[in-house]
Structures are given as C-alpha cells and as structure tokens.
Write a structure and sequence with these properties.
The chain is an all-alpha fold. It has one domain (11-42). The protein is built from 2 helices and no strands. The N and C termini lie far apart (22 Å). Keywords: Plasmid.
Length: 44
C-alpha cells in the first residue's frame, strides 16, 4: 500500500489533512488506519 498525504479543499478536511501530515505519514500503522478512515469518509 502506497503511503500518501492528502490535500483537501474544505476546511474540516483540510484540518484532517494537517493531522495526517503530522501524525500519519511518519508511521506505517497510522498511515494504514488513516487510509481506511479516508476510504470510509470518501464513501459515506
């Protein structure tokens, strides 16, 4: 699974993106969890 940092245009998702860049992109397990979270958010 490729590790990615996400960029969002809406304020709330932009805040999530910032948290992801701080926490997620440096930690393999966090990246996987965040990827799953974003997948769920994307398919609500």
């Amino acid at each position: 699974m490729a590790r990615r940092c996400y960029n969002f245009s809406t304020p709330s998702l932009s805040a999530i993106s910032t948290i992801i860049m701080i926490m997620g992109c440096n930690n393999e397990l966090s990246s996987i969890k965040i990827t799953l979270l974003l997948y769920l958010l994307d398919h609500l």
